[in-house]
Write a structure and sequence with these properties.
This protein is an alpha/beta fold. It contains 19 helices and 14 strands. It has three domains: about 190 residues, 3-Layer(aba) Sandwich (Rossmann fold); about 90 residues, Orthogonal Bundle (N-(1-d-carboxylethyl)-l-norvaline Dehydrogenase, domain 2); about 140 residues, Rossmann fold. Strands 3-2-1-4-5-6 form a six-stranded parallel sheet, sandwiched between helices. Strands 11-10-9-12-13-14 form a six-stranded parallel sheet. Helix 5 runs parallel beside helix 6, helix 9 crosses helix 11 and helix 9 packs across helix 12. It is elongated and about 75 Å long. The chain binds nicotinamide-adenine-dinucleotide (NAD). The site of nicotinamide-adenine-dinucleotide has 27 residues, from helix 1 and helix 5. This is UDP-glucose 6-dehydrogenase. Belongs to the UDP-glucose/GDP-mannose dehydrogenase family. Its EC number is 1.1.1.22.
Length: about 425
């Protein structure tokens, strides 16, 4: 099938390489010339496991190409997938300007009957809105059908999540249109659920809001565990074995981040408000997440009394491991708060440092190229992202470099027995008794 994808971010690019890998003829269009130049040379602009291999393989096979020309992309396509960004607006609503522009681009350039698939996360009713935009500008006689096909991949495992998705949602009004999309995805052998367009749009928000709420719930349990002397890791093990609960997204920590959960939860709340519905549970999910991000600093203030002049080494910057994405990363809130408290902050991350350097709130952070350099003479370590490199680090060697061997572990990634072997250490995990 001939497919064009508008937007080569995490979603568009992962979709592009995976659809070409199952045999489709894919052309990816992006406004960002630098990105397209890199991609055309076979270089992935994002860090994503497995991406580079599939990119090279499918370019070489002649099934995958890149362009900045919408005309070139749309001339080619029977199916056009919109995967542009849908960032948050100040009022919590969704900025649809990129989607609107993509709709206009399609209307102006399309020359044959086309199925337009909205893969970007958009509020309920947006597919109908985009159809109106296209209809207003389009003066041909061809049919243009809209399909809602929200994406559920996670950064850090985007390729595997696309190839082995739990489900694919296809929201379409016409059966033949849904069948065409089913045919496109058939080689993936993933369960497909057909719904109305509005239900498909809602499934995406309901899923993300549920997962975010699950995280905030376990974080509150962790906080209560600290008060009553229980160990949240044991609690999670015990809860997760229950099939009705499951153990995913039940890991306590310093809150969710990234480009999706924070904005999608707020967008759903905004939709509720616009419809006169008081979704109070979501307000709590957001409030708990905000305070969870401040937990490590609060613990450090409690321990030191005052952070003025203290040197804190942040290990991890990206919002989660296996990605270089800094959007809404808890590390930003933590760095800002530490600096406001007068602390000196050093930071190390295996891949996200270049992106972190572009963030204004991080301008007083000193970035280092190794863990050792970050922790040198530090009063304390904050583990912010659970990279394997931190799980596996030689703790006894690390603490030798520090001024005082104190670790605040925001992701519970160090094992208790390894901590206990280093007798001098002070260790403060989340929701578990500290080791002092
Ligand atoms: P992104 O910001 O990484 O990439 C968007 C790309 O679209 C950019 O490269 C931009 O230059 C390009 N673009 C903007 N307007 C364009 C146009 N008119 N024509 C062509 N290209 C255009 O975004 P992302 O993280 O891939 O997210 C895309 C959408 O998917 C969002 O709605 C997001 O909420 C949703 N989503 C993201 C994830 C994720 O993990 N990142 C997961 C599921 C869903």
């Amino acid at each position: 099938m001939k497919v064009a994808i508008l937007g080569t971010g995490y979603v568009g690019l992962s979709t592009g390489v995976c659809l070409s890998d199952i045999g489709h003829d894919v052309i990816c269009v992006d406004l960002n010339e630098a990105k397209i130049n890199k991609l055309s040379q076979g270089i992935s602009p994002i860090y994503e496991p497995g991406m580079q291999r599939l990119l090279t393989k499918n370019i070489d096979a002649g099934r995958l190409s890149f362009t900045t020309s919408h005309q070139e992309g749309l001339d080619h396509a029977e199916v056009v997938i919109i995967a542009v960004g849908t960032p948050q607006k100040d009022d919590g609503g969704v900025d649809l300007s990129y989607i609107e522009q993509a709709g206009k681009d399609i209307a102006v350039h399309v020359k044959q009957s086309t199925i337009v698939v909205i893969k970007s996360t958009v509020p309920v009713g947006t597919n109908e809105y985009v159809k109106r935009i296209i209809d207003e500008q389009f003066d041909g006689n061809h049919s243009i059908e809209l399909v809602s096909n929200p994406e559920f991949l996670r950064q850090g495992s985007a390729i595997m999540d696309t190839i082995e998705a739990d489900r694919i949602i296809i929201g379409a009004e016409k059966k033949e249109v849904a069948m065409k999309l089913q045919e496109m995805y058939r080689p993936l052998h993933v369960p497909i659920i057909l719904t109305s367009i509005r239900s498909a749009e809602m499934i995406k928000y309901a899923s993300n809001a549920f997962l975010a709420t699950k995280i905030s719930f376990i974080n509150e349990i962790a906080n209560l565990c600290e008060s009553v002397g229980a160990d949240v890791e044991d609690v999670v093990k015990g809860m997760g074995k229950d099939k009705r609960i499951g153990n995913s997204f039940l890991q306590p920590g310093i809150g969710y981040g990234g480009s999706c959960f924070p904005k999608d939860v707020k967008a759903l709340l905004h939709t509720a408000e616009l419809n006169g519905f008081d979704f109070s549970m979501l307000k709590e999910t957001i409030a708990i997440n905000d305070s969870q991000r401040r937990l490590l600093v609060a613990k450090a203030v409690n321990r030191f009394g005052n952070l003025k002049g203290r040197k804190i080494a942040m290990l991890g910057l990206s919002f989660k491991p296996e990605t270089d994405d800094m959007r809404e990363a808890p590390s930003i809130t933590i760095a800002r708060s530490l600096i406001e408290h007068g602390a000196k902050v050093t930071a190390y991350d295996p891949v996200a440092t270049d992106n972190a350097k572009k963030i204004v709130e991080m301008d007083k952070v000193r970035f280092t190229s190794t863990i050792s350099k970050a922790v040198k003479e530090a009063d304390a370590i904050f583990i912010v992202t659970e990279w394997n490199e931190f799980r596996q680090m030689d703790i006894s060697e690390i603490i030798k470099k520090m001024k005082s061997p104190i670790i605040f572990d925001g992701r519970n990634c160090l094992e208790n027995n390894r901590i206990k072997e280093c007798k001098t250490i002070e260790y403060y995990p989340i929701g578990r008794p500290p080791i002092i």
